[in-house]
Amino acid sequence: MTKRARKSDENEGQGGIGATKHGDRTLGMNARICRRDFLNSMLLASGSVLLKPLTPLQFLGQLPSGQQPSWGGYTGVGDYAGANGNTQKVMLAAHAVRDGAFDSPSASAADTGEVFDLVVVGGGISGLASALYFKDQAQPKQTCLVLENHPIFGGQARRNEFIVDGQRLMAPQGSNWFWVPNSTKLVGEFYARVGVDPGEFKYQVWGGPPPAMPLSRTSYHFARNLPSPPNFGFYFGGKFGQRPGKWLVDPWRHLDRLPLSPELRADFARYLQAVIDFHRGAGGETGEAELRRLDTVTAEDVLAERHGISREFIRLFVAPHSAAAIGAGPDAITGCRYELYGSGDNITRHSFPGGNTGFTRHVVKTLLPDAIPGPSTLEAVCRNPVNFGALDRPASQVRIRLGSTAVRVEHEGEPGKSSFVRITYTRDGKVYRLKARTVVMAGGGWITKHVVRDLPPTHREAYDQFHYSATVVANVAMRNWRFLHKLGLSGGRWFDGFGFWTEVRTIARFGSDSPTIGPDSPTVLSLIVPFHYPGLPLAEQCSRGRAELMSTSFRDFERKIREQFTDMFSMSEFDARRDIAGIILNRWGHHFVVPQPGFVYGRDGKPAPPDVLRKAPFGRIAFANTDLSADSGHDRAIIEGHRAVTQLLALL
Ligand SMILES: Cc1cc2nc3c(=O)[nH]c(=O)nc-3n(C[C@H](O)[C@H](O)[C@H](O)COP(=O)(O)OP(=O)(O)OC[C@H]3O[C@@H](n4cnc5c(N)ncnc54)[C@H](O)[C@@H]3O)c2cc1C
């Protein structure tokens, strides 16, 4: 037994942050499965540091070397190992920009001598789509470089991979599902352009004991879309007077059994009815005048007024879904983003095995065919490893430079008259500079406003009204999910503790080792955990959430996860030591821009903040990223990329 393991075992049953009601041993905190490399690095860290609460500053690299606690934790296998969420290295580089480390042009920046027709800052869906729209419309000799700060392209659309008992498992780090038909023709055409035919998506079929359970294709279908199928449940623990806690299977058909006050039970029933009515088409389309009015109030006001449901219910049930999908609960978002989550809509939901990572891989394959070996099929693009050497070759029209943070972007001379934009970036601790005729800033407003040095006050003020929430996505690899199946469940929702819901996904077959799935199959259960604090001012909700996200160690998150599962499933023979094969945390410091009232139509006679940035390029710089929409989906990332490139092509 290692020194570290002995120390934790001594913590069984004691108080303090190093101990829990279940004890480290019961929770499997020292299990050496799927986490070996991470645990070895943890052994180097001092136990006393690990047991103390840590401030964000400590996590930002302020501790003496050798005493830095591991922040990123285990990162998985495959192309995305070392690239889980916002990595600590990327965060430190970005915060150095914010904190003024590059406020003066660096005299020592090495000039690469390169001049590109377009430089795209940010290799997420929006930046990659920009590069593709450029390639499709520019002259063959015109060139493009994408600068991306993470070790792999994709942004919020990246995936985690595990090997569990010989099976390769994938799960989205962030962006998860897409839908057909997409409401925008441009997006449907984009799918086709990159070789994705949703009609080819076939999913694993039931391979467990009869009867077959319907399974979700995404990580939040059954939790959000009502009424969920009978194999979805609600868990109520100590907060609701349930000791031991209990599961209510098929709760939407048994609302009278919810261990809640009669008022809250009635709210559940009213909400369900509202969802059903809404998806039957009751209420019809909302006109622009009404949308403008709704943009002056919060979504919580609208929900309460229209459906007669209490704010207590909204904050208990609706807010976590809203925070996961829009960045904050209805208390903080504009009334025109008010939503009833339901399933009666006419769309088909799809998810690549690693979520919308699939699109980013297909875009890269389309831009640079050698970057992912093999044919352009769903299977090859999903499963074959990225050939990183092919991403940044001088002969390519479009190049992708990874691990590169743009720290200064500025026109040479007056923006309206200049012919070039100068870009300074850091890579592996060195500073470089190059030139571009045009630039798309696709990295997100939280950093763009610091990087673009000559940004006019109008644009800066607009970006100052963008508030970003924080979220952690924990992917928990399980050896099997018998513990759920024994309860008659494939997923469930809870209202207390860490996380809010989880559900077993059936995986698109082109990316799964097995064509079938059943309770004996290994699977990845995702916990999407937004940090939101209903009732507080939005800016405070966002900064508090980021502080919590940054200052919680991997080990403390891991303990919360193991404890939550043990609380909920030990009744059905779940054993965290045996059943959890690995955990990857994906920390998103700037998950979604939260559209507060006024974000969509503007306030006090001023234009909406995103419109200031979208309207026209600033000199030779255009702005993309999904945050320019009040509805930050992958589709908006594509649309904003298209618009930004179209604006710039006229300048080339
Ligand atoms: C947890 C989560 C779940 C989601 N689920 C869904 C879903 O199910 N369906 C859906 O449609 N959408 C979903 N989304 C939203 C969707 O993923 C995003 O809208 C989309 O991926 C954003 O793409 P983007 O390119 O605009 O931004 P990003 O993905 O943020 O990409 C920007 C990239 O630029 C990099 N960058 C920033 N600044 C710099 C710099 N100075 N230099 C170099 N690089 C820089 C960033 O690190 C990042 O990699 C989800 C998002 C999250 C976080």
Describe the structure using short key phrases.
single chain; 652 residues; alpha/beta; 20 strands; disordered N terminus; binds flavin-adenine dinucleotide
Q: What count of helical segments does DSSP give? A: 23
In this structure, how is the largest beta sheet organized? 7 strands, mixed
Q: What's the mean pLDDT score?
A: 90
Tally of DSSP β-strands: 20
Radius of gyration: 24 Å
Q: Which distinct ligands sit in these coordinates? A: flavin-adenine dinucleotide
Low-confidence stretches: 1-19, 36-69
**Bulk shape:** globular
The proportion of residues forming helix, as a percent range, comes to 25-40%
Classification by helices and strands: alpha/beta
Terminal residue distance: 65 Å
User: Could you tell me the strand content as a percent range?
Assistant: 15-25%
